[in-house]
């Protein structure tokens, strides 16, 4: 009897092993990004991972590499193009070096009076046309993820434009942001996001701009004594994939992933504002960084200096594109 049982167990084990061995290996999506996990983009990436793996019943495995642990700024887009990673969510300010400089329209100071205008732009023909421009680079745009409006930080108070004079300010790789800080009399310096904290700590640069969630999760507030809640510009993301990889997916898998991305996008955009509000509150609570809100008169001075950057950038971005966004604002009652 014992022999029969032993044979039965051995057979069952062999069949189970065979069944597992016959399952195809999961499709792996490496999702690399440069911010902390505890940010809107970091949480959005994890939500996409959870939904994609659950809904494909393990046929897809998403490996999220946050905080530049796999690739830092410039490298990550190159890695995507050669297929070393399959998914990224770079800031919209980082597509100029890729040859799609129109994305820098999102960097223009005061181009979006609020997120309602931003949403109409991203969800409508303007957002779709920008994604279309990525296709010739073998990149497919899947979604726009929100982070929010940027604050300025430095080790001197930044109340009026003259306060920026001579400051070395870290920027993302965007000619619009270069023009923005030159208009303020500052000296813009492009630098990878992962290098910013140390550059601020050592004085390589004097200050920077980012939504509060990035400032706080990278501990920049520990090396920046003054934050100004200027909301002078916007920072968001395009979730992008290697086009060959995406087009090569089994159609049923691609449809499931499109749904997972849609729901992860809804989630990310729903938490972004609160995440940034909470981060700003935490910066204030440390008591080590002054958080300053501009007066209406100061806001008017900032706008007077920065809104002309929109005109200055027409040759680079296209007057029609800038006008189309300002028309969207007008359709929502903004002049
Ligand atoms: C930056 O480089 O400041 C941001 O793009 C980082 C990010 O991805 O939010």
Q: Which strand-content bin applies to the residues? A: 15-25%
In the CATH hierarchy, the third-tier topology is known as: D-Maltodextrin-Binding Protein, domain 2
**Largest beta sheet: what is the strand line-up?**
2-1-3-10-4
Number of strands: 11
Q: What is the CATH superfamily?
A: Bacterial extracellular solute-binding protein, family 7
Q: Provide the CATH top-level class.
A: Alpha Beta
SSE string: HEHEHEHHEEEHEHEHEEHHEHHHH
Distance between the termini: 89 Å
Radius of gyration: 23 Å
Domain unit count: 1
Query: What's the pLDDT, averaged over the residues?
Result: 95
Helix/sheet category: alpha/beta
Structure report:
This protein has a single domain (2-331), classed as D-Maltodextrin-Binding Protein, domain 2, CATH 3.40.190.170. It has helices at 2-22, 40-55, 73-81, 115-123, 125-132, 175-183, 196-202, 212-217, 243-247, 251-286, 296-306, 308-312, 314-317, 319-331, and strands spanning 27-32, 60-65, 87-88, 139-149, 151-154, 168-171, 187-190, 208-210, 226-229, 234-242, 290-293. The radius of gyration is 23 Å and the shape is elongated. The chain contains 14 helices and eleven strands. (2S)-2-hydroxybutanedioic acid binds at residues 34-35, 91, 147, 172, 193, 210, 214.
């Amino acid at each position: 009897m014992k022999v029969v049982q032993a044979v039965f167990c051995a057979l069952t084990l062999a069949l189970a092993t065979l069944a597992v061995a016959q399952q195809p290996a999961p499709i792996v999506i490496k999702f690399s990004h440069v911010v902390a996990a505890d940010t809107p983009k970091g949480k959005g990436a994890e939500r996409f991972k959870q939904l994609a793996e659950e809904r494909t019943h393990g046929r897809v495995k998403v490996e999220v590499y946050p905080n530049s642990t796999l690739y830092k700024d410039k490298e990550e887009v190159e890695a995507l193009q050669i297929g070393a990673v399959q998914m990224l969510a770079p800031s919209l300010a980082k597509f100029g070096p890729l040859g799609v400089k129109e994305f820098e329209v999102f960097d223009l100071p005061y181009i979006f009076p609020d997120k309602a205008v931003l949403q109409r732009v991203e969800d409508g023909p303007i957002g779709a046309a920008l994604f279309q421009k990525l296709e010739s680079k073998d990149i497919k745009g899947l979604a726009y993820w929100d982070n929010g409006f940027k604050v300025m930080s430095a080790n001197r108070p930044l109340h009026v434009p003259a306060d920026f004079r001579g400051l070395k300010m870290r920027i993302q790789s965007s000619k619009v942001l270069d023009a923005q800080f030159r208009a303020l009399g500052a000296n813009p310096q492009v630098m990878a996001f992962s290098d910013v904290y140390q550059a601020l700590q050592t004085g390589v640069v004097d200050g920077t701009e980012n939504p509060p969630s990035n400032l706080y999760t990278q501990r920049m507030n520990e090396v920046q004594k003054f934050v100004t809640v200027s909301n002078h510009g916007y920072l968001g993301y395009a979730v992008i994939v290697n086009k060959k990889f995406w087009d090569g997916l089994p159609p049923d898998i691609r449809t499931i992933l499109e749904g997972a991305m849609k729901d992860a996008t809804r989630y990310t955009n729903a938490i972004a504002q609160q995440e940034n509000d909470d981060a700003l509150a935490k910066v204030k609570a440390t008591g080590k960084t002054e958080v300053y809100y501009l007066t209406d008169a100061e806001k008017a001075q900032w706008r007077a200096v920065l809104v002309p950057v929109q005109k200055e950038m027409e040759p680079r971005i296209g007057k029609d594109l800038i006008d189309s966004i300002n028309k969207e604002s007008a359709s929502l009652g903004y002049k």
